[in-house]
Amino acid sequence: MADVKKIAVIAGDGIGPEVVAEAEKVLKRTEELFGYQFETEHALFGGIAIDEKGTPLPEETLKVCQSADAVLLGAVGGPKWDNNSKELRPETGLLGIRKALGLFSNIRPAFIFDCLKEASTLKPEVLEGTDLIVVRELTGGIYFGEKFRRETANGQEAVDTCAYNVTEIERIARQAFEIAQTRRKKLASVDKANVLETSRLWRETVNRIAADYPDVELEHVLVDNCAMQLLRRPSSFDVIVTENMFGDILSDEAAMLTGSIGMLASASLGEGAFGLYEPVHGSAPDIAGQGISNPIATILSVALMFRLTFGYHEAADSIERAVKEVLDAGHRTGDIAVDKSTAIGTLAMGQLIVDAMRK
Ligand code: NAD
């Protein structure tokens, strides 16, 4: 029997449904071209789930995700729910779904389409050949450590604690080494081992795990240096692995190398192949419903799903090549068009990419 992959599809709010619809067309085209089979099941999540079910993450949505091989998510949130109490906010649903699905890493690729080099704030010659992935630890570190305030002789003091255990570091390190093995086999582990104890444990652990991946070249980079090198020589990085807060900052920095938020895909992974895939951008309420949003980030999220969860590398290549071809031919949505009067809409961009896909 054919291997049918189950994908939970969560369109969400704002432009979420528009961009997800185009990504679903890409799934369908992949079935036709490569003979793969996908079974998609739609579920409510975020603001729309608050409106219809009274909670951002309904139990049945979680069940649909848990019984799937992967989740494709559009985006959630919008002004309508901004003043809700914490438990009735779409963002609370995002934290909840990541926790419930055991997702402990966030993966963000940043690569440059030659024809969009001009859209970046960096010089084209610096960007040449940039193709990197940031692997960020998502569940530990200073964001989740103990937090409190206390009175001192110098007034009130606030404390945030940063903690990491070996198990948390080992699992993210293995994941990063394994991703590097599917690419150019270079891993940069980013820490602040000259001052932080958590970073020293991070470095020791990554060094120990490295013995199991002798084919991957490992370098350790201090976070401040990494922030500089990302702007100086971005093309020298392949995979970057780092802890939660450093990853939060560096992944946004890396994202801006590419110029537009409408182009960036991401994945959240746990143990095993399961993953949640979504564009980096939000629900863009300012342009929702106008049919002008850029679907490329969501379409590239499907390519990332093929690579990281299903191992369908040929199909992922086909999507990425199609996106490149369409951009090279000069087609642009408003967010990446220099001359806005020539911009095409969401449907047209999706269709052009589907038509350009080949085996
Ligand atoms: P945003 O990413 O939604 O929008 C920022 C700007 O980029 C806007 O001008 C928007 O029009 C533009 N933009 C974003 N995606 C685009 C696309 N695909 N095509 C063309 N233009 C695009 O960020 P925001 O405005 O800060 O947030 C809006 C809402 O989205 C908020 O409620 C926020 O909480 C939510 N959000 C959700 C997620 C998520 O679901 N993971 C992530 C970020 C923000």
Automatic annotation (TrEMBL):
Residues reported in the UniProt entry to bind substrate: 98, 108, 136, 224
Catalytic activity field: (2R,3S)-3-isopropylmalate + NAD(+) = 4-methyl-2-oxopentanoate + CO2 + NADH
Subcellular location: Cytoplasm
Any GO MF annotation of the entry: NAD binding
Entries under HAMAP family matching the protein: LeuB_type1
Name of the protein: 3-isopropylmalate dehydrogenase
Family: Belongs to the isocitrate and isopropylmalate dehydrogenases family. LeuB type 1 subfamily.
Keywords: Amino-acid biosynthesis, Branched-chain amino acid biosynthesis, Cytoplasm, Leucine biosynthesis, Magnesium, Manganese, Metal-binding, NAD, Oxidoreductase
GO cellular component: a single term: cytosol
Keyword NAD: yes
Lineage top rank: taxon: Bacteria
Quaternary structure, from the entry: Homodimer.
Provenance organism: Paenibacillus pectinilyticus
Residue numbers binding Mg(2+): 224, 248, 252
GO biological process, any: L-leucine biosynthetic process
Gene: leuB
